[in-house]
Design goal:
The chain has a three-stranded antiparallel β-sheet, covered by helices on one side. The chain has 408 residues and is mainly alpha-helical. Helix 3 packs across helix 4 and helix 4 runs antiparallel to helix 5 (102-116). 76% of the residues lie in helices and 6% in strands. It starts with 5 loop residues before the first helix and ends with a helix. The longest helix has 58 residues, at 149-206. InterPro entries: GspF/PilC, T2SS_GspF/T4SS_PilC_CS, T2SS_GspF_dom, T2SS_GspF_sf. It is a multi-pass membrane protein.
């Protein structure tokens, strides 16, 4: 019999309103989400609630994609439940009910169904690779085999917290200059399209020759009024086309990531972030008992940059043939000398996981400092850019009026 797909499960999920009595016949009412009335009654009975009435309130609308933060919360909650001595299947059912996001509830209920049918927790996770990466699955599998599932789930949650925090800082570094540039261009276009034409009509009534700066702004305004819409459409089309092509063409995606790494200031932040994610992932896998070669494969997939992904896959191939990790890293010419030296010391001392963790912390701190420095630099730069753009147009518009006042 074919296994129901996620869409089929979503279509059969409904919202149910119920009323009943709890401890000491206390009247209760509420709302639950489930596939059928029987499931809701069983769940409420498990909570010592006697159901008196239950009715379907409509289908559940799935909105919002499952994000890494949801998986992190799931990992943390599962660790807490299992540590409290609650069996795995019951823990999954309780955690599923705790989620307000229907998509996440469906996913956890599907995991519970798999475990109830006799599948191991790690095998159940493997059926949803779009939500659970290889690192999560490796950690859970290792935890099941060694009896340390709680610590592995907590380790995964801590890892995801670190990685998501690093991602947020890198996004801040990328978006901040972009927002400044977009704001400057938007204000300039608004002045050229809406404000300058008002002055242009007034200047024509003067019948006098306009100053060179004013004439330049007027001509630029005329050109902008004619071309701003097609130009904006063309820029948007190019961006969407590049994004579409990058998702489907590996060489183009590699070139774009290479160009990103070569940018001043921003490229330095992205480089440090990629090294930090590599070190953090490899430290987590290695400390959890995952073989180094498999850990490198996982680290390649979580690097966040195709240039580093290719470099890590190259390292994996060389390590698989017996090459030391630090030497393989050095040969890629992508990792800082200090990082290579720290990894070398960790290999010699038998403390590779500890040293990789220190490398990750060092580069994460450098990313923090670089983002803070960029933010501090951009604040006065915003004032200068907007001052030059807006102030230049305003001065150009008032120059003829000043000249007219001088003549009078």
């Amino acid at each position: 019999m074919a296994r129901p797909t996620r869409k089929t499960r979503a279509a059969r999920l409904y919202r149910w309103k119920w009323s009943g009595t709890g401890h000491q016949s206390r009247p209760l009412k509420g709302e639950s989400i489930g596939h059928c009335k029987a499931d809701i009654i069983v769940e409420l009975t498990r909570q010592n609630i006697h159901v008196r009435s239950i009715r379907k309130a409509g289908g559940v609308r799935i909105h919002g994609a499952i994000k890494p933060a949801d998986i992190m919360l799931f990992s943390r909650q599962m660790a807490t439940m299992i540590q409290a001595g609650i069996p795995l299947l019951q823990s999954l059912n309780v955690v599923a009910e705790s989620f307000k996001k229907p998509a996440m509830m469906i996913l956890v209920k599907a995991l519970a169904d798999d475990v109830a049918s006799g599948t191991s927790f790690s095998q159940a996770l493997r059926r949803y690779p779009q939500h659970f990466d290889s690192l999560f699955i490796h950690l859970v599998a290792a935890g099941e085999q060694s009896g340390t599932l709680v610590s592995m789930l907590e380790r995964n949650a801590a890892y995801k917290e670190k990685v998501e925090s690093l991602k947020a800082r890198v996004k801040k570094a990328l978006w901040y200059p972009a927002c400044v540039l977009i704001a400057g261009i938007g204000i300039t276009l608004l002045l050229l399209v809406k404000v300058v034409p008002q002055f242009e009509g007034m200047f024509q009534s003067f019948g006098a020759e306009l100053p060179a700066l004013t004439q330049l702004i007027v001509e630029l305004s005329t050109l902008t009024q004619q071309l701003w819409l097609p130009l904006a459409g063309a820029i948007l089309a190019v961006i969407l086309l590049l994004r579409w092509a990058a998702q489907r063409t590996a060489p183009l995606a590699y070139r774009l990531d290479t160009a990103l790494l070569a940018l001043p200031v921003i490229g330095n932040i992205v480089n440090k972030a990629a090294v930090a994610r590599f070190a953090r992932t490899l430290a987590t896998t290695f400390a959890s008992g995952v073989p180094l070669v498999e850990g490198l494969e996982t680290a390649a997939g979580t690097s966040g940059n195709r240039v580093y992904e290719q470099a890590v896959r190259q390292i994996r191939q060389e390590v698989a043939t017996g090459q030391p990790l630090h030497l393989s890293m050095k040969m890629t010419h992508r990792f800082p000398l200090l990082t290579v030296q720290m990894v070398s010391i960790g290999e010699e001392a038998g403390a590779l996981a500890t040293m990789l963790r220190r490398v990750a912390e060092y580069h994460e701190e450098e990313v923090d400092n670089a983002v803070d420095a960029l933010t501090s630099l951009m604040e006065p730069l915003i004032i200068i850019i907007l001052g030059v753009l807006v102030g230049g147009i305003v001065i150009a518009m008032y120059l003829p009026i000043f000249d007219l006042g001088t003549v009078i």
